[in-house]
Structure formats: C-alpha cells, structure tokens
Amino acid sequence: MSFFSFGQSAEIDVVLTDAETRKKAEHKTEDGKKDKYFLFYDGETVAGKVNVTLKNPGKRLEHQGIKIEFVGQIELYYDRGNHHEFVSLVKDLARPGELTQSQTFDFEFTHVEKPYESYTGQNVKLRYFLRATVSRRLNDISKEMDIVVHTLSTYPELNSSIKMEVGIEDCLHIEFEYNKSKYHLKDVIVGKIYFLLVRIKIKHMEIDIIKRETTGTGPSVYHENDTIAKYEIMDGAPVRGESIPIRLFLAGYEMTPTMRDINKKFSVRYYLNLVLIDEEERRYFKQQEITLWRKGDVVRKSMSSQATIGAQRFEGSKSSVSSVLDLKCRA
Amino acid sequence: MSDPTVADTRRLNSKPQDLTDAYGPPSNFLEIDVYDPQTTGVGRNRFTTYEVRMQTNLPIFKLKDSVVRRRYSDFEWLKNELERDSKIVVPPLPGKALKRQLPFRGDEGIFEDSFIEERRVGLEQFINRLAGHPLAQNERCLHMFLQDESIDRNYIPGKVRHSPRDENDVYSAHLLNPTPPGCLALSLEPTLSLP
C-alpha cells in the first residue's frame, strides 16, 4: 500500500465463485492461532473474481499489468528467503495500461493439481494461496488469499496388524499388538499388551503419540519431536499372563496425515511409544511407527475390508472369515 | 448391517490368565534391609557397620536370602565401581558428613544416633534402587557387595551374564523423549522367542 496521499492507489479483493457453498477448514497459523480457510482438494478448479477498487474515484490508475497467480510453496523457517514453489500458475488479467474506474476481472485455474496437504509446523510450512498483483513502476499492489488443501485417501488394501515380542532378556518380556498399521485421523487404536515375564516392579504403563517433523537433508537433517498425547493404559503392577487392553481414540488429538519426504524437503511421521515405568521411575519403552491418513467424508467401506476387520477379532480362525463374508453377501 | 462409519473397538482376543500366575507370588520380589548399625573399634579408629539383608526370587541372584555386614566406604566403593563400568545413572548416596568428622564438636559426630539413623535410611534407599536396576544386576561388583561375605577390592570387574543383556543392546534405540535427569530409559528390543 502506498503511503503517499497524492497519486492513485487501489484495493484488491479476491472472491471465489463458490464462496457461498465451499466448505472451510480450520488450520493453525504459525503463531498457533486457528483460522478458517476455504478447503480444496487435488484436481479441483479454483475460480473467482478479482475486484480492483480505486481509492480516489476521479483519478486514473496507471499499471504495468494485472495478474493472478496460484502458488503452492514450501517455506523452511531457517531459510525464509528461499521459497520452494512446487505449483505455480499465472493468469494475466490485464495488459499494461490504465484503469479509469474500479474493475472486476474473472479468473479460472482449471483442475489444479494440489499434490500435498497444507501443513504448518515447527520448522516448515507448506501453503497454497492466490495472489493478485497490480504491477506498478515503484511499488506493486498485491493481495494474497490462503486456502487449505487436504489430501484424501481410501481404506488401504493391505493393513496388517503390528505384533511383536520385545523386552529385556530375563527381566521383562511383553508382547504388544496394535490392530492396524495404518489409521485414519478419526480411527481408534485397538490393541493389547500381554505380559510374558515380569521381573521388575512396574508402577504404570502409558502410550504416547509422538509426532516427528524432519526438515533438511544429508548432514543437516533436523528432527523436531512433539508428544501429542500421553494416555495411561495401566496403573499398578502386572504379573505374568495378564493382558492389558488398549483403546485410544485418535479424533481427540490434533494430527495431520503422515507426510513422507514432501518434495524432498520435509517429513511428518507419527509413532506410538509404549512406555512402562517402574517404581524407581526407570522407563522402558518401545516405539513403533504408524501411518496416518485422512478419510474423505463420504467413503463407503468395501465389503472385503469389513470382513477382514471382523475376522481380526479371532486369532487364527480361518473358518469365521468365510462365514462373515457369507452373511454380508446375503444382507 | 453395521454402520460402516463406526470403528470396531472390541478388545483383541487374549489368552485367559493361568490362575497360578494370577494368584502366585510375583516374580519381581526383591527387598533389601539395611539395619542393626554397630559401631566397632576405639577412639579415632571407630566405624559403623550395618547389616544388609537381601531377600529375592530373581534368578540372577545366586542366593535367595543373604546377610552381610557393610560400612559406608563399602557403599562408596560400589557406587564408584558402577559409575566407572556401567552406563547407568547411579542413585545418590547419603552425604559423607565431613563436617561431623571435625574435632571439637559438642555431639558424637558421625556416631550420633540420629545421624546413624539418617544414614541408614539413605543407604537402604540407595541399595534398593540400585539392586532393582536391570543393568546393575549384570555387574559382578553388585553381587559381591550383596552376597559375598567380604568385598575383595582386588577383584576383576566384569559382567555376571554372558547373554545379550548388556549396555549396547539395551541402549541402542534413539531415545526420543527427554528423560528427567537421573532417570533411566531402556529400550525394549525384540526378545529371542521362547520355546
């Protein structure tokens, strides 16, 4: 914006065509506040109008061109100068000339690819925005409008359970099991911890969800760990043969889908950390990565995956799988 | 037909627990008592010893019930051995009380009943915390301290077990959560499958 009171200036406004109907999603800003932005998915068209309103209605506005850009970029906080643009589209709205009155320009970016989900983290930010610019000799007038992009997935074909026997030789042996390795953001982690050998004095056990944001490559890799949740699953001393159930609802926690090596710039991964604490505050832990994905609102489970879920209840009983399928077919 | 948007949260199947496991004695029994302080010797050569009794059902200890007599400097020796040879954070000992050993005190100094009791409690806490540590249980010096009649200061330091429970296995994982100072975090590694 110009500070000079003489000459002409203008205000730019970007309005989407479907502003009335399009859903908005909450997204955290860099300083931790939550704001709502228009929500887009990969492949959707971004269309609307750019309103250029002259501040002094009598005067003319000379300009070197008016354009609108759709940008998707990754910004590393320690390297603010370099934005890595992975999507960059431009539409010229007006050739260099002058505006004698306020004007509105239509634009449409058709079926725009939005390969990654919007992300605001501790050391990196991935954002999409529209930027309308009125170029001028001395200073441009521009306006940015951020949008939020979600990446959707469907139920994975292969989603095996995680089951492992771990411990400290002759001291503590446990078998832990989580019902899946891939969970959607509103899913439930169902599992169990089975004690095979307990020669230490355990006080309690908890499951932590840890988010690890990795930025940088090669020797300058940096991991930022954040404990999203601590959930106590057992209070008191277990003995051999005891089985402790786990039921952890993910919808209550603020998480994003797993993001692996996004544009070779950063990753966001999630881990379940099983922690046992003994009476002397010593901690025994086992960490396991899980994959998180975002489920679309209207997605129907396939019949075969429903049957698989039903069969998971029964350890090793194959006959029940076919009977469940039979029931589903008849329904 | 069940609602496809509601997740199945039923518990996973598990084997029912054997009642002898459920109601039997726990396998983690370990109790050490430090008691019966006795001051022996005369004049400047006096020192106090304590009876250290260990009762346990942990298989790593040869004796399930052992009694030995130890003095404060024996506890110090144990702490130093473990700090040198093992990677564990050794719990603190009760103080050395050097001030109490200066002359011209109004009271009995380190032979004062209240001080001996304070020290006894501290030594008991120290040895219980230490003996329950899976890595300390590997060290020859701990077993010698608890179960040999006398401490051979010329012993050859070493590990008690030859099987994989050593520092490299147990500490190998990247510790994610910052642990509070003095706290210990051991990573659980895949165990050899039992027959």
Automatic annotation (TrEMBL), chain A:
GO terms for biological process: intracellular protein transport. The keyword Magnesium does not apply. It comes from the Eukaryota. InterPro entries: Arrestin-like_C, Vps26-related. Coiled coil: none annotated. Keywords: Protein transport, Transport. Belongs to the VPS26 family. This is Vacuolar protein sorting-associated protein 26B. It comes from Oncorhynchus tshawytscha. The lineage of its organism: Eukaryota, Metazoa, Chordata, Craniata, Vertebrata. The gene is VPS26B.
Automatic annotation (TrEMBL), chain B:
GO terms for biological process: endocytic recycling; late endosome to Golgi transport; protein transport; regulation of protein metabolic process; regulation of protein transport. GO terms for molecular function: phosphatidylinositol-3-phosphate binding. It comes from the Eukaryota. Residues 1-25 are annotated as: Disordered. One of its GO terms (cellular component) is early endosome membrane. PROSITE patterns: PX (PS50195). The keyword GTP-binding does not apply. InterPro entries: PX_dom, PX_dom_sf, Sorting_Nexin. SUPFAM superfamilies: PX domain. The keyword Protein transport applies. Keywords: Acetylation, Lipid-binding, Phosphoprotein, Protein transport, Transport. Residues 28-152 form the PX domain. Belongs to the sorting nexin family. This is PX domain-containing protein. The gene is SNX12.
